[in-house]
């Protein structure tokens, strides 16, 4: 990626307010955002230029985000995947990390959590 190009982040979440919140936070960091409301829509968005990072909700209308991680990691190995979920049980976190997630955030999110993840994953 050229230094002057704006990095892209895909937000996959069926809650419009979450997409809006992430979008504002990420644009504040000069990141380009795209949205998908379900896994099928995400698949279509990913056919273009892959993002550097994906914030992936776990509970989507057409499946579990955790189960989508292997597809993402196989087809877009350079893309960082962060699971975002209200169900933050130790079992869910362990499964997400085993599937290849780069981070795991529990809802409700704080600005500090999102910034920490962005800084940790060097985007």
Give a short summary of the structure.
By secondary structure, the protein is α/β, with parallel strands linked by helices.
What does this structure look like?
The chain is α/β, with parallel strands linked by helices and 123 residues long. It has a single domain (8-120), classed as Response regulator (Rossmann fold, 3-Layer(aba) Sandwich). The chain has five helices and seven strands, in the order E-H-E-H-E-E-E-H-E-H-E-H. A five-stranded parallel beta sheet has the order 2-1-3-6-7, sandwiched between helices. A two-stranded antiparallel sheet has the order 4-5. Strand 1 (8-12), helix 1 and strand 2 (32-36) form a beta-alpha-beta unit. Helix 3 packs parallel to helix 4 (90-99).
CATH superfamily: Response regulator
Structurally, the number of domains stands at: 1
> What's the architecture, going by CATH?
3-Layer(aba) Sandwich
Number of strands: 7
- β content, as a range? 15-25%
- Radius of gyration from the alpha-carbon trace, in angstroms: 13 Å
Strand order of the largest sheet: 2-1-3-6-7
Helices and strands: which structural class?
Answer: alpha/beta
| Biggest sheet character | 5 strands, parallel
Tally the helices: what do you get? 5
CATH class: Alpha Beta
Per the principal axes of the C-alpha atoms, what is the gross shape? globular
**Terminal CA distance:** 12 Å
Kindly identify the CATH topology: Rossmann fold
Elements, N to C (H/E): EHEHEEEHEHEH
Low-confidence stretches: none
Q: How much helical structure, as a percent, in the residues?
A: 40-55%
């Amino acid at each position: 990626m050229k230094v002057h190009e704006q990095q892209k982040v895909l937000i996959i979440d069926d809650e419009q307010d979450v997409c809006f919140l992430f979008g504002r936070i990420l644009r504040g960091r000069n990141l380009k955002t795209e949205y998908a409301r379900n896994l099928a829509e995400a698949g279509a968005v990913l056919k273009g230029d892959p993002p550097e990072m994906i914030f992936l909700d776990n509970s989507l209308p057409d499946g579990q985000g955790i189960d989508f991680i292997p597809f993402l990691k196989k087809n877009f190995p350079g893309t960082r995947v962060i699971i975002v979920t209200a169900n933050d049980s130790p079992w869910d976190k362990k499964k997400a990390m085993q599937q290849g997630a780069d981070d795991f955030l529990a809802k409700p999110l704080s600005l500090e959590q999102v910034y920490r993840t962005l800084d940790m994953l060097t985007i």
